[in-house]
Amino acid sequence: MNALSTLVEAVVERPETEGRTLALLAMKDGATVVEWYGSSPTTFFGGGERVTETTTLISWSMAKSITHALLGIAMVDGLLDVNDPAPFAALQVKGQPPIRWIDLLEMRSGLTFVEDYEDASVSHCLEMLFSGEEHRGVADMGLYAASLGREFQPGEHWSYASGTTNILCRMLGDILAGGDVASVGAEKRKNAIEQFAKERLFGPIGASSPIMKFDATGTFVGSSFVYATARDFATFGELYRRGGTLADGTQILPSGWHDHARHWVAHDPEGSGPHGFDYGRHWWLWPDFEGSLVAQGFHGQYIFVLPEAGITMVHLGITDTEAAVLLVKGLGELVRELR
To answer: Per CATH, which fold does 3-62+220-338 belong to?
Structure first.
């Protein structure tokens, strides 16, 4: 067994108390060098099914980085400028500085939002995503997040908030559909952003599996809900590894958009890395690896991209928050071996 195989085994065969890996895929200079699949856990309702290269798995917050790509493509089309004030009346307060697209991308909008998933008596995130009929969340997630009020001035305080991403997606949906839900309807808004994503992002990069989820108004729930295969999540990561170009050199993201994503904004000492994680613009940054980009989702979902070293790595699975640092350490050893 070579060193790489040993490191892979250390991640995927770790004790169940440290979590479960469902898929692990690593690429070096565009070639797949690791591809491993596990099984879903057995529960009272069933499970224990083998995960394969065709199994679609949930992104959780990795979807935020996909949202970053969609906004970049919209910029290429001249549909928005991230330095402009956000075109959403519910966000803006007369006599106060406007909240801009970039403030939202950097998670520095100043809006109130409690992100906690597990411990808080109040969680705006859980209410937004899972309250209501059949636990489908609030009807208009962007409006919900925009209406909670301001705690800080835009740009002065960093606070990770899933509601922020759904505000961005609501505005993008309005632009693409030519109006809000009251004027054009939910179905037109859903179809507009879904078609845009397929024709301008997923199709060009060769990702056929992604399934996007929407709220009742047709807004893409870009905070949390894309289902795709490990291969297609890696294909998305490869787009950023190549600096926003397709394999044939065609540029589909704005020039330098991957550097835009990894512009340092804040440090989160509670992030899942051994030394915490940094935050850029809808991508995380791994302090241990200079120049890295990390799409990160709840329970141990990661797309790790290190452009200058030619590395893209995807981990999908079920890992409790308490064990996340151990997982990230293991993934870090894999990156060092690949580098």
So the answer is: Beta-lactamase (3.40.710)
Kindly list the averaged pLDDT for each block of 10 residues, start to end, along the chain of length 339: 93 96 98 97 75 98 98 98 97 96 98 83 92 90 97 97 98 98 98 98 98 98 98 98 98 98 96 92 97 97 98 97 95 97
DSSP state of 98: P
Contact between 23 and 230 under an 8 Å Cβ cutoff? The reply is yes
| Spatial CB neighbours of 332, under 8 Å, sequence gap ≥ 6 | 273, 274, 286, 288, 289
Rounded-to-integer distance, Cα 176 and Cα 199, Å: 13
Domain residue ranges in the chain: 3-62+220-338, 64-190
The 3-state DSSP class for residue 88 equals coil
Pairing relationship of beta strands 266-268 and 277-279 according to DSSP bridges: antiparallel
Q: What is the pTM of this model?
A: 0.96
